[in-house]
Every structure is written in C-alpha cells, then in structure tokens.
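Sample pair:
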Amino acid sequence: MTAPDLDSLRLLVLVEELGSIGQAAASLGIAQPSASKRLSTVERRLGLVLVDRTRRGSALTPDGRVIAGWAQRVLSELDGLLDGAEALRTQHEAQLRVAASMTLAEYLVPGWIGELKRGDPGLYLGLEVTNSDQAAELAREGKVDLGFVESPGSLPGLASKRVATDRLVLVVPGSHPWARKRRPVTAAELAITPLVVREQGSGTRETVDAALRKAGVGPAKPLLELGSSSAVCNAVIAGAGPAVISELAIVRDIAESRLVPVAVEGVDFGRELRAVWPAGRRLAGPAAALLAIAVRNAKSR
C-alpha cells in the first residue's frame, strides 16, 4: 500500500468540512476534475471507497469520514512538527549571534567562546568572520548581538567596550635590507614604501593609515591588498614587501625567524580592540556573559 500525499489528505479533509468536492477544490485553488482525480488515486492506494458520487453531488462514505478524521490528525501533527522545528531554529539563532574582525576571530575570540561554552555546553552560537567595518555594521543593524572590531575611529550608533589592547608591528623577511637596519625606520620612509596591506574596511588597515596621518605623513602606500592577517604574513615571507600587522599574528613567525620585526620611529601603532553592540541596548544573557569573559581576559593579559 502506498501512502497518500499530503495535498490529497488536505483535499479529503476539506471535502468533509465543506461538503463537496467543488468547494474543496476551490479552497485549494485547483480545478474540480483535478480534485476528483486526486481522490480517485487515494481510493486506489488505500483500497477503499471514500467518496459517494451521485447526480445530486458527492459526499464522503462512512469509510471516507473515518479516513478524513485520521488525515486531520496527521496534518495537525505535521503542523505541530513544523511549528516546533521553527521555534527550535529561532531559539537557536537567537541564543547568541557574534561577528568578529579577522584578527580577533583568528587569535582571541575562539578562546572567549570556548570559555563561554564550557560554562554553558548547550549554547548555540553563530560566529561570522568578516572585517571591522562589516562587523560594526552587522551590530548596528541588529543582525548580531555582539561584534568585535579593531577600528580606531568613532562608531556611530554603537556602544562599545575595550576588550583587549594590541600593537601593530612592521615586519620584513630576513632577506630584506630593513632586517639589518641599525636605526629605526622613520615615519616618512614607511609612508613612501609600498606595503602589503589588508583590504579597505579592515581595522588593521584603518589603524595603519590613521597612525601615519597622525604622524603627518599620510596613509600607507599599498603594494598588495589581502583579506586576512595570515595571507599578509605569507606574502611578506615570500618576499612581496614589508607589512604592518598585528603582533598577535606574527608571534610564531618571528620566533621561527620567518619574519623580522623592524622598529618604527615617530609612529604609534598601539590600538584598542573593542566589543560593540547597538547603542541604547542593554546586553543580557549569553552576550553579556561573552563580553564579561573578554574583558576579564583583557585584564589578565
């Protein structure tokens, strides 16, 4: 025996409720001949006569009324399943949505999330990894509960809290002339030197440009734009050119002599890493817990 399809079960229930195949067909937006054909198919599949067809019209047989009652229960259970699944999905999506800039997502946020999950193993968390501009915009629009950014400037429409401090470092490969330079590179030298940089919208790129402007020598001169700290480091190691990158990203490469840090004179590359959320909104639940973890870890660094 082959089970009837759900649309045919709905048709059968409507015939019982409305009293005719024609009205049931109209309610479903199908032609009456098509409705009659569907009911005939159900009868063949179940091996039962469900509809009493006469010149005066059609009505369900006693067997048809029993089957229609069971069909109504099946459809109600299906509706309950779909409603429950939607509720679970919405609950999951609403538990905690986070966006983080590349550097934070690579080097800090996973540890914070791990600590949060240890305290609440059942927590469903979604993390979107993007650049600082996009993370801030997602938070501003309420598409995430909490964002983590590296941008040095003001953040209109957002409340913020410092969660870490960071410092950008000028790095070159060991074969570069600056690797053997005895005096620091000046701000002017750095400004006229083509650099491997992050893309526009990156907090690291904004920090470099802002620091050079503050030093009075203008923004960085891009040689190559890349979308992540790892890609920048690999390009520098391969000899593409110097870069100014987060110290979080270069610890291992410096320790293993793949990159050489170079002092820069007259430029402050320090920065704050911040959590952001919509202005006027009070953080609560998992979002507040994650922020507290991030702030606590910042104090211990």
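The chain is about 50% helix and 25% strand.
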